[in-house]
Design a protein that fits this description.
This protein is of the alpha/beta class. It is 44% helix and 17% strand. The chain folds into two domains: 149 residues, Leucine Dehydrogenase, chain A, domain 1 (Rossmann fold, 3-Layer(aba) Sandwich); 150 residues, Rossmann fold, CATH 3.40.50.720. A hairpin with a 2-residue loop joins strand 7 and strand 8. The chain contains 14 helices and twelve strands. The two termini are 20 Å apart. The strands form two sheets. The chain has a seven-stranded mixed beta sheet, sandwiched between helices. A five-stranded mixed beta sheet has the order 1-2-4-3-5. Bound molecules: nicotinamide-adenine-dinucleotide. Nicotinamide-adenine-dinucleotide (NAD) binds next to helix 7 and strand 7.
Amino acid sequence: MVVAFKPEIDHDSSPYQTALAQFDRAIRYLKIDDGVADFLRYPRREFTVNFPVRRDDGSIEMFTGYRVHHNTVLGPSKGGIRYSLAVTMDEIRALAMWMTWKCSLVNIPFGGAKGGVVVDPKTLSPRELENLTRRYAAELIPIIDPHTDIPAPDLGTNPQIMAWFMDTYSMNKGYSVPAIVTGKPINIGGSLGRNQATGRGVITVMMEALRYMGRKDAESTRLAIQGFGNVGSNAALAAHENGFKIVAVSDVYGGVYNANGLDIEALMAYVAETGTVDGFPGGEACTNDEVLTSDCDVLIPAALEDQITARNAGRIKAELIVEGANGPTTPEADDILRDRGVLLVPDILANAGGVIVSYFEWVQDLQSFFWDEDEIYRQLERILTRSFEATVMTAEKHKTDLRTAAQVLAIQRVADALTTRGFYP
Ligand code: NAD
């Protein structure tokens, strides 16, 4: 008898419950063996590390970090590293599972992983942040390698942190191993376009979705973006370059709204100076909830999980949601939005630009041969456009929403590969 995997849920909102609910919804459309389905519910490996960091005042503080390999059937596992006080094993497990489906959906030869440290990076000095990163990287050495598991940046981490991570791994090996991590600075083996890739990809997919909806005019399309970090700010910039109007943005400190469109260049300069969109003089102050429910045509959540829930889904005015963040919408909210006719492009498709260019970075590092930016963006757009079309065709075939369709495609590919490989021993 097959017993469905029931993980321990360790806090109120459970991203992993969301990931499993989405999985169960998708496999109803698939003809896969119950045992294969159950195998795909389990993470392959879960690793917890507790380690000390010496603070600048000489005191020692303990930190907890995680790394989960969800699935490695299609290739080495791939996924970002998150620094946030909200990090839990449950969250990392969900994010690792979504990485498996994301890589499969866009047809790149990676499995899914994710990592994180329970820390607010803003409370550490640069030296403390470097020490924490180096010790976490050293703790992960038994389970990472350019051919087994390749980390990348995510919420709260950035190219400099990837540089310290790569250097720590390389010092332990005794030679430079750039392919151990992606999202690095360009001068140590990073890829052109990687920093912009996720946000830019979100806008590529948004434009495909608008075309599919029959909306062609950029100037009259108003966007609201929650989160103004790597994904949100690069999405805003790409949207602005393509002629769209951004009416609302927010970050952890607050938000700003301007019905006539925010001056994105001035906003970027303000954020570079102050570190937040809060207080930007080119609009009225608003809350995060007001950004999500603001008067706009497209909503791009680009911050955290569990932002669009049964509580606010009925008040969302956008007719298109493009998920820049991972897991921003709960299954209950998915149902409400579908019933209201809101089109939602799911995370595993909408924000896949990041892992696609991470894949290009890894290939370039392994070959020590680097591509120009035009080539990177051409290949990125080709993969995203093809993946969008395949998802729409699957949704039409099964008469279902885009999230379920994307998962159907992704899960089928992993299940087929697993069946072809067979079960060891
Ligand atoms: P980031 O740390 O660069 O930026 C996060 C942004 O969200 C910041 O503006 C922060 O202030 C804001 N934020 C944090 N908590 C918030 C809250 N409670 N309410 C409102 N805003 C809040 O992170 P990022 O790399 O841009 O990642 C954002 C999301 O995109 C995450 O879900 C991440 O998993 C996903 N993602 C990132 C990448 C990537 O390449 N960086 C790729 C795919 C998906």
